[in-house]
Each structure stands twice: as C-alpha cells, then as structure tokens.
C-alpha cells in the first residue's frame, strides 16, 4: 500500500467526511489482521478499543512510547519478566490473561518487593478472534485491578497465520523492596524450615485437562493468584526470619527446591506425608503418569525461614485465604551434593532429582 | 516423563557418576527442543551456556526470579516495553538481537530518561538452530554493553514447531527522568520547530531487501542504534526547550508525526525538500511502491522544540555521530483537524495522512 496513492498530492480538502472514517472494530465477529500490528489507524483502533478500554489508567493514557511514573521512593528496585505461552488459552480457573499478571506479580513479590507497575507486550497471530483477545485482555485488567498493580505501558505486534499460536503475552513487573528485607534463593541455611503455602499440582492438572489430546474429566481448577499480599503478611509477621521465597511454577515444587539447594549450597529433606495435595490432583497425576512434585503451580509459594519463626509464619500463611492449607514440608540440611531428598509416605527415602528435559510443555 | 520412574524410591546412592551427567549443549549443530523450555536441567543448561554466558552481570548472576537492583535515586521512573518479531531475523546492519535492545532503550530515552536496566523474554520455536540463537543473543549482549544498559533478568519459553517463527524477543526498559525534564507527544506547541536526526527509511528498506519474496540488491543497511546519548546531548544543550522526542519506528515519520499532532491537538507542516533520505532508499521505495515517509526507522529521532532553540539543537544533533544528517523539517501549526501537511518538492501541498492498515508487516 502506498499512502501517496490514496492521498493524491494537492488534496488538502478538509471537508471530505470520509477522510477520517474508520470502520468500527467488530469485536464480536472480527479477527486480527496484519494491519492491526502495523502502527497505522487499524493498530491505533485496536489499542484504543481493546487495550485502553480494559486497562485504563493515567499512565497508559499519557499515550507516549513509555510510561512516566512517580519516583518510587526509598528502597531497592526489583524487575522481573515472564513470557506466557500457555496452551490452551483458557483453562478451569483462569486464562492466559490473568496468568500473565499473576505470574509476574509473584516473581516480583518473591523478591520481597511490593509490586508497583506492570508492562505487557502482545504477540498476536493473524486470524485470532478479537472476541477471545478481548476476553483475555479483560481478564488481565481484572487481575491487575484486583492486585492493585496497573499495566502502565504495552506493545502489540501481529505475525502471520501459522507463525504464532493465537496470543503470547510477555509481562514485566517493577517493585520496591523495603529496607532490611533480603530474600534470595541463595540465603537458605542448614536447619531452616521449608514451608509451602498450599496444595501442589492444581494449575498443571487444570491446564492438562483441557488439552485436546488428553481431555479428561476433572473438577480441578488452576490456583492462579497474585501472592503479594501473602508475602506482605509474612514479611510483617517475622521480619528478618525469612530467607527465601519462591513460587514453584514450571517444573513444580521439585525443580524449585533443587534450584534453591544449588543456589544456597545446601540439601533439602522433604517429608512426603506433609506435602498437601488434593485427592483429585493426585488421581489425575496417577492417570497421566505424572509426578505431582514436578507439576506447575501458579498460586503457591515456598518459604524458607529460620526454624524458630516457622510456627509463626505457618500460622500467618494459614490465616490468609491463599495459604489455608499451608504446611511445613521439610528442613534444610547439610549436603555437599545439594540433593533434595524425601522421606516417602511408606517409610523409604528417595532423591527428588532435577528433570532432565520436559514434563509438561506450555503450562504457563 | 515420570521422574519417579527414573529415580526409583530408595535410591540415594550419591556415588553414581552418571547422576549429574548432562550432555554438553551442541551449539554448532543443536536445535531448540521442548525440553529447553520446561524448567528442568536442559532449560538450566540453555540459560547458562547461551544467555548467562553472553549477558553476564551481577544482577543476572543472582539467579532469582527477578533482579534486585539498587535504589534508582531521585527522579521519576520510566518504563517502556516492545515485542520484537522482525522477519527475517538477520538483515544488513543488524538482527533481532541488537534491534530488541536498541528499540527499548530508545523508547525509554524518548521520555527524557536515562535508561538503567533491561529485561528480556524469549519465545523460541522448537527446532530453531542453537547457533542462530547464540548469534542473536551475543548481538543483544554487545548492544547492551555498548549502550551501558545491562540485561538484568529474563525468561525463556519454547513453543512447538509451527507455533512460532524461530524467535520472538520482548524487552522492557526502566530508566530515570531527571527533575525538570518533561517530554511528551502532548507538549508540541504552535510555532515549535520539528527536527529530524537523519535519513528516513533505512531500516525498513534493509529488512525488506532480505525478504524471500522480494529480495532485491541494495547496499542499504539498517540504522538500528541506541539513541540515549543523543538524547542526553539534546537535554544538556537546551534544557527546557525540548517538548517532544519520538523515534519514528513502525509506521515511519508520517505515522509518528500524526500521533504527535493528535496528542498535542496541533497541525504539522513539513517541507519535503528538507527531509533527508538516502538516494538508494528513495530508489528502493520507488521500485517497491512504498512511501518512505511510512517506512520504519530504528535509529532516528524527531525532536520538537521551541523555535528559538532550534538552531542550537540542530547543531547539537549534527555534532553527534548519530545525528550527522539532521535537519529542520517542519513547523508545528494551528490546525483544528490535527493534520500533517507537506509542501512538496514540486511546490504543491499534500496531506500526509495516517495509514489505514499495514504497509510493512514484521519490520521490527
């Protein structure tokens, strides 16, 4: 398309009523086309009618290339980012939209930071239904609003049909860490208690239950949730006693604990009988041949803390709606090999190793 | 894969030498597989050998879910994000990697901010050559290092073959705006001068020259570059006189000026004879039936400033290697319709309208 051809030289007639006519966006039946990503009038319309309409806030309304935000005040910054490629886009308990908000808020919160702002970038596949896009964007907006963390800037690109998969969303979060808070996967110490905020495997099983190739009946719903208020409660309950917070997403509890063991140069001993798991999740995992220890969660956290604070922090977790089924699941040990080991329910012991490759692709 | 099957209960033999054996990453011949995105050992290896090896810095080395960064000091924050889906991945003068760094640094800089940190999320297609990934990641690392803006945190996901297109990169930048600086597309005033830092259309033509369907011979190279030092020079040269900075990327000079005209509720009058364009770019655009005013740039900026500062700022631009061909290309006018109009080289006038749809898909 040559813009010169459509506006012949010398045409400065301001009275032509068709000049500024843009066909309204047909959200109900319309589909994403390449023009929606090209930065012209169609792109501006998509952004206004779908994205701005849902995310509306003063920062986005500035309409510049980036968002100008107030000085964050004292405290160190935290920055975290996640690409979200979950398939299918909708699953029991959530969808790509709220997941992309919760996932990044949680990464910021696990650093002990108060999440302040989110950015979002969207990679749309040509032909994707605008109605589905709107549903996902509205779910994102709701999640951001409920969490009190606005989406302040964004970007949208479109790729040809067959070069994407409906929609991918990358989100980045910025937060501020209060002075005195110092959490890291590298801070676990021998003797520390390992707490878990609730049942494992719900998210992974909920997503899998919707896969065309698997599709099985279950009432399991994803645990996708923003955990920053839970983190705030923990930080208030026992300041200084928390060493590590981590949300066991992709790769599940087992992978996350192995990461912490390696980062902190310690071992971890788990007590299988203490690890909360819903009966339905356990049944689904047996059916699918999955180990729930490796199945993704999107609304759970692992807290490693000084042993003397374990009871207080466990009570704090249980007093919060997102931590009702919290448990003390293990202890940090001395181990030159940095193994995660588990006392099984049947009185045995086993190593809970890293997975070498994939267990569940595109779970988040 | 069931991890329980591979580590039978009771196996706590620490002496097995194969336990921790991981086949080294074959960067030369290897390809991305689904396991590289699953959060297990293969993912950890990919991150260590490709991403950490290239981006190495103390923030990334923390190894947590996010990066813990120093307090940014006084000043307002800026946050900007971009998804990068350029096709092909390599083009004369650059590639997806350096583009994804430059693009986001520029968005931060156009707000008058000093860029401090970048995050990056990668969506890889199964089967993508690790050698190409490494080349792109190294180009990104080089661009970040040259700009002095570290990539402090990241995320990697893998999608099945046919559900992506090699590699997409989303980057987010955070910066700080010095007190007293207030730039926005909404700040242009009637009578202001419109400056442009150099020739238009280079990036778009360079990318197009590599498209399989078009492939034509040209020596045009992309102008992809980080513009923050140029912005810094402008801010020092005439503090207070700058109203708007904007990089005319997707949609080109015409689209960006239309956005500014609309945001500021003004008109803009361009002088075509003053708009710098390389002869080869002009020739390529004629051949392809493209209007160079709408072709993407990745290393140019538009500066709108008080007229009395125009000469000083133009000299400042020209004194910088990235602004050598800077020109004063127009004036902000009063116009209730917010039109961008142009005095053509042949003495006529024409409206430089918004594009309604796409001109060039996947140009950045």
Give an overview of the whole structure.
The structure is a homodimer of 364-residue chains. With 364 residues, chain A is of the alpha+beta class. Chain A has two domains: 3-177, 2-Layer Sandwich (60s Ribosomal Protein L30, Chain: A), CATH 3.30.1330.10; 193-351, Phosphoribosyl-aminoimidazole Synthetase, Chain A, domain 2. Chain A has helices at residues 3-6, 41-55, 58-61, 96-109, 130-147, 202-208, 228-237, 252-264, 279-288, 310-318, and strands spanning 67-69, 76-84, 90-91, 94-95, 114-125, 151-159, 167-177, 193-196, 242-246, 267-271, 302-305, 327-333, 340-343, 349-351. A seven-stranded mixed β-sheet of chain A has the order 9-11-8-12-10-13-14. The first copy, chain A, has a four-stranded mixed β-sheet with strand order 2-7-5-6. In chain A, strand 5, helix 5 and strand 6 (151-159) form a beta-alpha-beta unit. The longest helix of chain A has 18 residues, at 130-147. Chain A is globular and about 70 Å long. The two termini of chain A are 38 Å apart. Strand 1 (67-69) of chain A pairs antiparallel with strand 2 of chain B.
């Amino acid at each position: 398309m040559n813009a010169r051809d459509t506006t012949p030289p010398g045409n400065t007639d301001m009275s032509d009523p068709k000049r500024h006519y843009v066909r309204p966006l047909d959200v109900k039946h319309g589909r994403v086309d390449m023009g929606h990503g090209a930065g012209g009038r169609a792109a501006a319309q998509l952004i206004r009618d779908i994205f701005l309409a849902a995310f509306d806030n003063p920062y986005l309304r500035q309409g510049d290339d980036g968002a100008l935000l107030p000085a964050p005040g004292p405290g160190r910054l935290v920055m975290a980012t996640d690409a979200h490629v979950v398939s299918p886009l909708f699953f029991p308990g959530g969808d790509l939209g709220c997941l992309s908000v919760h996932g990044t808020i949680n990464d910021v919160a696990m650093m002990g930071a108060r999440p302040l702002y989110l950015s979002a970038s969207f990679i749309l596949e040509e032909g994707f239904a605008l109605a589905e896009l709107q549903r996902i964007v509205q779910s994102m907006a709701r999640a951001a609003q409920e969490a009190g963390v606005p989406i302040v800037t964004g970007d949208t690109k479109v790729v040809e049909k067959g070069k994407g998969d409906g929609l991918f969303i990358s989100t980045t979060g910025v937060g501020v860490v209060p002075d005195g808070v110092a959490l890291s996967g590298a801070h676990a110490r021998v003797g520390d208690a390992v707490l878990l905020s609730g049942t494992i495997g719900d998210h992974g099983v909920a997503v899998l239950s919707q896969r065309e190739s698997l599709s099985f009946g279950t009432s399991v719903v994803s645990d996708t949730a923003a955990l920053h208020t839970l983190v705030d409660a923990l930080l208030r309950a026992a300041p200084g006693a928390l060493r590590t917070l981590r949300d066991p997403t992709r790769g599940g509890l087992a992978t996350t604990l192995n990461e912490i063991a390696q980062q902190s140069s310690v071992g971890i001993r788990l007590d299988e009988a203490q690890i909360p798991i819903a009966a339905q999740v356990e049944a689904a995992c047996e059916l699918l041949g999955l180990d729930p220890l490796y199945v993704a969660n999107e609304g759970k956290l692992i807290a490693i803390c000084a042993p003397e604070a374990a009871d207080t922090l466990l009570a704090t977790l249980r007093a919060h709606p997102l931590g009702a089924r919290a448990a003390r699941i293990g202890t940090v040990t001395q181990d030159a090999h940095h193994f995660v080991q588990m006392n099984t329910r049947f009185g045995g012991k086993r190593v809970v190793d890293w997975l070498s490759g994939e267990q569940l692709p595109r779970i988040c």
